[in-house]
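Subject: Sanity check before I submit

Could someone independently write out the structure tokens for this chain? I want to compare against mine line by line before I put it in a report. The sequence has 401 residues.
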Amino acid sequence: MNEISSASLAFDLHTQLVEYRASHPTADRLLHHGYYRAFVGGETTDTVSRATLEVAMKESHTYHEVARTLDDAILTRADTVFLTDDLRELVKTAEATMPDEVLFDTDIYTPCGFIVMETPLRYDVLSRTKASEFESLLALVHKHGGTVTGTRTHETPDQFGDYIGAEHWEVRAFAWADVDKVKPEALADIEKRFGTKSPEYAFARSVMLAPNGDKGLYVRVFGSMTATSVDGVTIEVPAISRELRLMDIYAFFYGEDGLREETALYEPTGRVTDEMLKASWERSRSIRRFLVALFRLMEEYVDVDKSSLHRAHGRRATRGGRIGDTKNVTILSLRRALGDDEDGGGVGHKVTLAHLVRGHWRNQWYPSQKQHRAKWIRAHRRGGNAGDEVTARPRIIKVDR
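---
Independent answer below. Compare away.
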């Protein structure tokens, strides 16, 4: 995939994704099926009849159609946001030490957005491959012009007859939408597409209009799968890696109760030994932290600019089905004019040695909100005179006598 080096390229990538999904209605079905299985996982039994399987497949298909319509409602209504590399690096640095911070509705500066990063993030997603079908898979890869490198290890399959491998992804974009803002529009799309007497509409109403529905964000993660590693070999299919694909689906909730609910929903218990489930939890946690860190940094460290587009970009986007802002792209970049000393190292502090304070989080009290929230303190020079050479801060060791 080409590098996304400008706001207009980010906007076109957003449009291309909407167009691709419109022409590929079955895309993401396997991903949605996996989420459906997790959704009804507590209802499965050891003995399953053919009739039960047929019912389950119909329900899974219904789930897919509803999920696809919801995903498309988010994508078509989202405003394009371009995230520059300098800010992306700050977010990654800050996220590495950020506590699992509560998400508030006031953090969201736009109800529905599609963030495209100048440089992608890399994630490995554990996956299963049937050991009995491995040779057929290799033949299929060669047929479609793929390459296979490495040497098979012939590892022992798990109890289900599967090899556990890894898909290598480059995550290019995140889409989000405030749940309350997008649910009515998504439900209207489902009603228009399937009718009020359809199982899709009935299922959507039961989920979206539940009286105890959660307040928060729907989050969708998009990227390209560059390769797959399994049983000692690495498989690459260039035709697959050229297109943007849906990689993950999440719901992140507002408030203290929301954070506890997310933990209960995504985090495996101590009794769970499934490595794929554990890896999925860690990935969801990483993605949540990245987005929350970005929202936390918005007020003090981010410049928000608008870039106007040539009318040709907007016309193509409108023809493709986009109904969000098709005239502008929001650009998020690292703010240039930042204070010299944001950690209170000036007045009232006697520090004689010029040194560098590393970036860190501080539990800051916000009187207007009557709560503590994590605040990022950027790396900065502290102490000494303007012309002094900056040194590593001396380590102080307390010795008890």
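---
OP: Matches mine. For the report I'm noting this point. Confidence is low (pLDDT under 50) at residues 43-48, 339-353, 394-401.
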